[in-house]
Amino acid sequence: MALTAWMGIALAALPPLATPPLRARPPVVVVDPGHGWSSLHRSYTGAYNRWADVHEDPLALDIARRVAGALSARGAEVHLTREGDQEPSDYNGDGEQTNRDRSYFALNLRRLRPEASQPRADLYVSIHLNASPDPSDRGTTVVFSEVGPAAEHVEESRRLAEAIYGQLSRVLPESAPPFAINGLYMDRLALPHAVVEVVFLSNWADLQWILKAENRQTAAELVAEGILEWWGSFPDPGVPPRRGGAPAPPQR
Ligand SMILES: [Zn+2]
């Protein structure tokens, strides 16, 4: 489909959001703007990017801030793993600033932020932009880990990923349904989590779409909507059910 036709559909097809009921306690959410450290690591996927002046990390930061704003506006307690165009802090004190700090931050929120109302985050969402050697690859992708400590919450993570993917697919081409990617730092995320690759920077139509601020805002609001839809699908205040406890259907 021609770029203009696709973008016209994408911008026109967004109906009013159906807001699910929030549980009594709003969620504590860690929003992670992907990447952001040394110039060599601005993007894991930069090798496929055909446009040298487009980088993943500032776009991830911009979208993550918008996600945080949309969640905060609806009562969620939100913490960003990095506040600006910088490396994440050395939260675990090992002398290095890596993805380990992102998972440590999510799991140790109360100790790091004594004012936090809950002992740790209810969920972790990381924002990225995808890239592929095939320039025709496009659309939104949401992944999670199902091994290591992350295995404890795999069904919750899958449902979270599906909720976010379902919302983003209202305006973006579907790429592949949410799937597990194991062996990366997300394995250490012993809480519900999702890694959102909003669009492919290596696809011209996706790139032109995400470079527009209003589209980044739309994407961010849909990510927030997916998070709150997922949160509202659990029947009682408190932490989501542990492994083995099937969540109840959404309460209306
Ligand atoms: Zn990335």
Low-confidence sequence ranges:
1-12, 242-252
- The CATH topology turns out to be Aminopeptidase
Distance between the ends: 38 Å
Spatial strand order of the main sheet: 2-1-3-6-4-5
Overall helicity: 25-40%
Radius of gyration from the alpha-carbon trace, in angstroms: 17 Å
CATH architecture: 3-Layer(aba) Sandwich
Instruction: Give the overall silhouette.
Output: globular
Amount of beta strand: 5-15%
Total helices: the number is 7
Ligands present? zinc ion
Please characterize this protein's 3D structure:
This protein is of the alpha/beta class. The chain has one domain: Zn-dependent exopeptidases (Aminopeptidase), CATH 3.40.630.40. The chain is 33% helix and 13% strand. It is built from 7 helices and 6 strands, in the order αβαβααββαββαα. A 6-stranded mixed beta sheet has the order 2-1-3-6-4-5, sandwiched between helices. Strand 1, helix 2 and strand 2 form a beta-alpha-beta unit. Helix 2 packs across helix 7 and helix 5 packs antiparallel against helix 7. The chain is globular and about 45 Å long. The N terminus and C terminus are likely disordered. The site of zinc ion has 7 residues, from loops.
Secondary structure elements and their pairing?
Layout: H1 3-12, E1 28-33, H2 56-73, E2 77-80, H3 99-107, H4 109-112, E3 123-130, E4 141-144, H5 154-168, E5 179-180, E6 193-200, H6 204-210, H7 213-231
Parallel strand pairs: 1-2, 1-3, 3-6, 4-5
Antiparallel strand pairs: 4-6
Helix pairs in contact: 2-7, 5-7
The protein binds zinc ion.
Zinc ion binds next to loops.
